[in-house]
Specification:
- By secondary structure, the protein is mainly α.
- Among the domains are: 84 residues, no CATH class; 235 residues, no CATH class.
- The chain is built from 23 helices and no strands.
- It is globular, with a radius of gyration of 23 Å.
- It starts with a helix and ends with a helix.
C-alpha cells in the first residue's frame, strides 16, 4: 500500500462517518468529533505520517472548527489540556531514565552479567534474557527501547555463536531466545506501571473517565499476583512449547565475560545511574506515604541525572523520541477526553450497556476484559487500542457495575495492555524487531501467540476472580 493511499484512507473514513445521519440522542458536534476521532485512530494504525503529527492534526482540526466547547477559549483549553497532564511528563522523564541506562552502559552491563552467570544452558540463557528485561522494566517506559534497543543487540549475538541463523538451524537456539525475549517483555510491560508508556496513558484516562486513581504501588501490588508467576514461568513454558535443539551453551558465559572485560570496571556514571534509578523507584512505590507525587519524583530525578552528568542537557533537548511521545500522548489524551466532553461516550456506552443488562456483575467484568484483550487483534498499536477502546469500556462498566467494582475492572483492563502484545508479530513495539530477526516464521508466531495469549488471558481471568 502506497503512502498516499495510507494518507487518504483516514481522511475518507472521517468524511464517510461525518456524512452519515447523526444517530438519535447524539449531538451533531459529537457525531463530527467521533468522525475525526475515528480518522485519527485509523491514521495511527496505518501511520502515513508520524503518530504525533496525526494526533496534533486531529486536535487542531477539532479546536479550529469548534467541535469541542462552546467558545474559542474553551476549545483552546481543551486542545492544550493534554500537555498539562502529569502522567505525560512522567513518561517524558522516564524516557530520559532509559537514555541514562543506555549512555552510562549500565543496561548492557546488567544483561551481560546475567548471561555470564546463567548462560551455561539454553534454559539459563532464556532466564538471563528475561531477567535482564525485568530488571530494566520499571525504569524504561518504552518496551521497544528496552527489548529491541537494549536486550536485542546482546541477545541476538548468542545464537550466532552456535551458527544458529535464520536460514541455518534457527530452532537450534535462536528461535527459543527470540520467543522468550518477546514473551518476557510482554509480561514485564504489564507487571510495572512504568514499563510501558501506554500504561501511564491508560491510568490517566481511567482517572479522567472513571475517577479511579491507580498509582505505582497499587498497580504492582494488584498485578504482581499473576505477573510474577507468569514472568518466572515464561522461559520454562517456552522451553516446553518451543524447545531449542541445543540444550547446553558453554560458549555464552565466555563471550559475556569477554564483553564485560572490554567494558572495564563499573564507572562512576553507572553507579550514579543505579543509585538514582533506585531513588526514583523508592519514591514511586512510597510516594503516597512520603507525600511526593510520582511525576514530581521523576522530574526531580531527571534533574539529578543532568546535574550529575549521567546525561547532559543537550541529551534532554535533542531526545526526539521523548518529545515525540510528549506531543503524541498529549494530543491523544485530549482527543480521548473530547469524547467524554462532547457526550459521545455517554451515548455509546449507554447503547452497548443495553446489550449486557441482566448479566451477573462479575460476568460483565470478565466479558469486558476478554473482549478488550481480543480486540487487540485489530490493532498494531497499544496506544491506539487504549485511546479507542478504554474510555468506552470504562463507560460501559460505569453504567452496569456497582461503584466498588470499577477499580477491579480498571485494573484488569490496564493490566492486559502489556500481555496483549504477544498475540501477533505487530501487536507491540518490539514485536517487529524480534520477528524481523528471522528466527520465527509468521505462521509459527501466530500459533505461539495464540497459545501464550490464551495463557496470559487465562491468568487475567483468574486474577479477576481473586480481586472481584
Amino acid at each position: 500500500m502506497s503512502n498516499n493511499v495510507k494518507l487518504a484512507i483516514p481522511i475518507l473514513v472521517a468524511v464517510f462517518v461525518a456524512l452519515l445521519p447523526t444517530p438519535e440522542g447524539l449531538a451533531v458536534n459529537a457525531h463530527y468529533f467521533f468522525a475525526v476521532f475515528l480518522g485519527v485512530i485509523v491514521g495511527l494504525i496505518l501511520e502515513p505520517i508520524p503518530p504525533a503529527l496525526i494526533g496534533l492534526v486531529g486536535v487542531s482540526f477539532c479546536a479550529t472548527f469548534g467541535l469541542v466547547g462552546e467558545s474559542a477559549k474553551e476549545a483552546r483549553n481543551w486542545a492544550l489540556s493534554g500537555f498539562s497532564n502529569g502522567v505525560i511528563w512522567l513518561i517524558f522523564a522516564a524516557f530520559m531514565f532509559a537514555l541514562g541506562y543506555k549512555k552510562s552502559g549500565l543496561g548492557k552491563r546488567i544483561a551481560l552479567l546475567l548471561v555470564k552467570k546463567l548462560g551455561k544452558t539454553s534454559l539459563g540463557l532464556g532466564y538471563a534474557v528475561a531477567i535482564a528485561d525485568g530488571v530494566l522494566a520499571p525504569f524504561m517506559p518504552s518496551n521497544t527501547a528496552r527489548s529491541a534497543g537494549t536486550i536485542f543487540p546482546i541477545a541476538i549475538n548468542i545464537p550466532q555463536m552456535f551458527n544458529s541463523l535464520p536460514d541455518n538451524e534457527p530452532r537450534k537456539i535462536g528461535s527459543y531466545i527470540s520467543w522468550v525475549a518477546i514473551a518476557a517483555t510482554c509480561v514485564t510491560s504489564s507487571m510495572f506501571l512504568t514499563a510501558l508508556a501506554p500504561n501511564l496513558l491508560a491510568v490517566s484516562l481511567v482517572e479522567k473517565n472513571a475517577g479511579v486513581i491507580i498509582d505505582w504501588g497499587t498497580w504492582f501490588s494488584t498485578l504482581a499476583i499473576i505477573m510474577i508467576p507468569l514472568f518466572l514461568a515464561v522461559p520454562y513454558l517456552a522451553y516446553l512449547v518451543y524447545p531449542p535443539e541445543q540444550k547446553y551453551s558453554p560458549e555464552a558465559p565466555k563471550w559475556a565475560a569477554e564483553e564485560l572485560r572490554k567494558m572495564g570496571s563499573i564507572t562512576k556514571n553507572e553507579i550514579l545511574m543505579l543509585g538514582l534509578g533506585v531513588l526514583a523507584l523508592v519514591m514511586w512505590i512510597f510516594g503516597k506515604e512520603i507525600g511526593v507525587n510520582s511525576t514530581t519524583a521523576a522530574i526531580a530525578v531527571l534533574c539529578l541525572l543532568v546535574l550529575s552528568n549521567v546525561i547532559t542537557w543537550e541529551d534532554v533537548i535533542t531526545n526526539k523520541g521523548a518529545f515525540n511521545v510528549l506531543i503524541w500522548f498529549s494530543t491523544l489524551v485530549a482527543m480521548a477526553a473530547g469524547l467524554k466532553k462532547v457526550g459521545y461516550l455517554k451515548w455509546a456506552s449507554g447503547l452497548i450497556s443495553s446489550w449486557l443488562v441482566g448479566l451477573d456483575p462479575t460476568m460483565i467484568v470478565i466479558v469486558l476484559m476478554v473482549l478488550f484483550f481480543l480486540f487487540h487483534y485489530l490493532f498494531a498499536s497499544v496506544t491506539a487500542h487504549v485511546v479507542a477502546l478504554l474510555p468506552l469500556f470504562l463507560g460501559i462498566g460505569m453504567n452496569l457495575l456497582p461503584a466498588e467494582m470499577m477499580q477491579p475492572l480498571a485494573m484488569l483492563l490496564v493490566g492486559s495492555l502489556g500481555l496483549m502484545g504477544i498475540i501477533t508479530p505487530f501487536a507491540t513495539g518490539p514485536s517487529p524487531i524480534w520477528y524481523g530477526a528471522g528466527y520465527i516464521s509468521q505462521a509459527t508466531w501466530w500459533k505461539l501467540g495464540a497459545i501464550f495469549g490464551t495463557l496470559f488471558l487465562g491468568a487475567l481471568i483468574l486474577l479477576g476472580f481473586v480481586i472481584l
